Request: fold
Amino acid sequence: MKKIQKTIEVFVSEHGQEFDNEGDCIKADKEDAKTLQRYFKINHHPDLTEGLGYSDILLVKVKIEAHRMNDALIKERVEDYCYSIFGKQVAFVQGVAPMKYWEVFPITINEFLDPRASPEIGIKRFDRLDLYAPTGRKLYPI
Reply:
């Protein structure tokens, strides 16, 4: 038996997607320049009895025309969407200790496509949602 160690070259786009060749990576970056696609993880519905974390995870892909919005505003739009769906951000564990009812984190495309690989998600229940902002103001489900 022989043990062989191999190294492979992988090209990573600006937003974390991995490619086998440089041409596909460059093509993906050019497409991404036209339409911003950002990925987020939303933890929601916390355990308000013991305060032991969140029971549900929502993975969100946001598509926005690049000329309408910059990166800094996209997370704010996702938070606005969360306010409209989940309501207030603060809840109370056993009525006294404050805890966020939902929270938003940016993730990579690989975490969006294969969430079970993330130790934070593991075996928790999760859903996916695609959102689009045609006007750059409000997010709508696709």
Helices lie at 22-34, 71-86, 109-113. The two ends are 53 Å apart (CA to CA).
